[in-house]
Amino acid sequence: MDYSLLFNAYAAQHGQQGWSRQRLLHACLRSAIRQGTLAAGTALAPSRALAEELGVARNTVLYAYEQLASEGFVQCDRRGTVVAAVPLQAALAQSAVPLAQAGLSQRMSNLRCSQPAAAPGGVPPPASQMGAFVPGVPALDQFPLAAWRRLLERAWRSLTPAQLNYGDPAGESPLRVAIADHLRAARGVVCDATQVFITDGTQSSLDLCLRALADVGDTIWIEHPGYAGALAAARGASLNVTGIEVDEEGIAPQPDDWLLRPPRLIYTTPSHQYPLGSVLSLRRRVALLDAARRAAALIIEDDYDSEFRHDGAPLSAMQGLAADAPVVYLGTFSKTMFPSLRIGFVVVPVALAPGFAQMRAHASARGRVGEQLALAEFLHSGQFARHVRRMRRLYRQRRDALVMAVQRHLGARVTLQGMSAGMHLVLCFKDESWRDEVISQQLLAHGIVAEALSAKAVQGGLALQGLVLGYAQVPAEQMDELIRRMAALLPPETTATARTSRRAQRKVKA
Ligand SMILES: Cc1ncc(COP(=O)(O)O)c(C=O)c1O
């Protein structure tokens, strides 16, 4: 604690009232304790040292300490004079200069956030939840932590003093090379390392892209329902958001959308639409690329969980469909490895690389060289591919167990969507009167996280009501019991849905 700074600042504010130095020091320390600047348990400086530091008589300090002790703000123990645990409210109630009187609350009320930050109904911050059925979180207990620790250790051992300086703004070169190699082989992305920019994950990639590719007021299309992170980034960049409907073939813009709301950017999740899970058909991909090219729009392809394809052959990335595809490709290691790694990447068309390099030079991410080098080695050595293969098998098993459990306990009341890939599926309600936000809250009260589909709405409400269930973290053997519990908490089957489902069952038997 810099007592001189504390004391001089206090004296500058209150010293003009003709107080003695004893009284001033006592008031200064008391105010610092009340405001938490001197926290409970902090040992104050010994009286002799403090007197020297402040250039006052030792008696002045002793007087102040005694006063504080008699008021209960400090107590003496073997460490000397120690700040006591004073409940904040009690301390504020005794405040000699109440905050409002000091004009502080008035001054604070002049502070305000930007319009996007203060917008009503803004996107709530994502909570860090675990367990059944939190979407988007991989099986963290399956990550090869020991191998990763060894790679980190090796990377840190190899670092030179020069590598402790700010890192390359575009990311460490070995990692950019490893990612480009991986994407060409596994996703059909057409790129080399100079097009790859390392970020702190998709959220940071989106922020970077929107700053680099759009101006305030430009129109961005976002799938509706869609990824709240994309919506938050677009609002943060003061873009004009148009929600574009999604069907079983993926994002489905209408001729009027192109005509009346032409986009500068189009955000899409073609491999596994988030959250509905449809895969953008080849026909739609080609049409979207053509139309985007004609409208001079850029597509932001978020390929967040394409590594986990469970049924059918994987479609390669849109970015690789044509050599000059107007696509910026985003990837993340949050799903394939773990979210707190906070490493993602953007692959930009060659023509945009200099602009991105310029943006990146002034961005915050220019560090974590050790982690980036370890990740490059994780990719090069084949450990990444091995881990992804193992997780793909595990998630498929978990998905199968979930689908069976839903069919057994809820089959008559719901339909399933988006099961062919990824780490989540959507449970759609057959009964149109069920409200997913209400049901989601009820389930949460019983310890089951099942996000409402409506929470993913980008523009207005959603006709389809349902729940997004992430299954990657849930062991297959727990699935049946969890869904049985969920089924008991959902409204019973209505006569109308019962009739429809009996008819459907008879059809299946026939
Ligand atoms: C559609 C989508 N994209 C990307 C991500 C990953 O974001 P990040 O890399 O910031 O963890 C998620 C996470 O749930 C997601 O749902």
Strand order of the largest sheet: 3-10-9-8-7-4-5-6
| Secondary structural class | alpha/beta
Helix content: 40-55%
Distance between the termini: 81 Å
Q: In the CATH scheme, what's the topology name of the largest domain?
A: Aspartate Aminotransferase, domain 2
Strand content: 5-15%
Main sheet makeup? 8 strands, mixed
Characterize the structure shown.
There is one protein chain. This protein is of the alpha/beta class and 510 residues long. It has three domains: 3-108, Winged helix-like DNA-binding domain superfamily/Winged helix DNA-binding domain (Arc Repressor Mutant, subunit A, Orthogonal Bundle), CATH 1.10.10; 140-384, Aspartate Aminotransferase, domain 2, CATH 3.40.640; 386-509, Aspartate Aminotransferase, domain 1, CATH 3.90.1150.10. It has 19 helices and 14 strands. The strands form three sheets. It has an eight-stranded mixed sheet with strand order 3-10-9-8-7-4-5-6, sandwiched between helices. A four-stranded antiparallel sheet has the order 11-12-14-13, with helices on one face. Strands 1-2 form a two-stranded antiparallel ribbon.
A few lines on this structure:
This protein has 510 residues and is α/β, with parallel strands linked by helices. The chain is built from 19 helices and 14 strands.
Topology, pairings included?
Elements: H1 3-14, H2 21-34, H3 47-54, H4 58-70, E1 74-77, E2 80-83, H5 88-93, H6 104-108, H7 115-118, H8 145-158, H9 173-187, E3 196-199, H10 202-213, E4 219-224, H11 228-236, E5 240-247, E6 250-251, H12 255-260, E7 265-268, H13 282-294, E8 298-302, E9 327-332, E10 344-347, H14 353-361, H15 369-380, H16 383-410, E11 414-417, E12 424-429, H17 436-445, E13 451-452, E14 466-470, H18 476-489, H19 495-509
Parallel strand pairs: 4-5, 4-7, 7-8, 8-9
Antiparallel strand pairs: 1-2, 3-10, 5-6, 9-10, 11-12, 12-14, 13-14
Pyridoxal-5'-phosphate binds at residues 136, 201-203, 227, 269, 274, 302, 304, 332, 334, 339, 344.
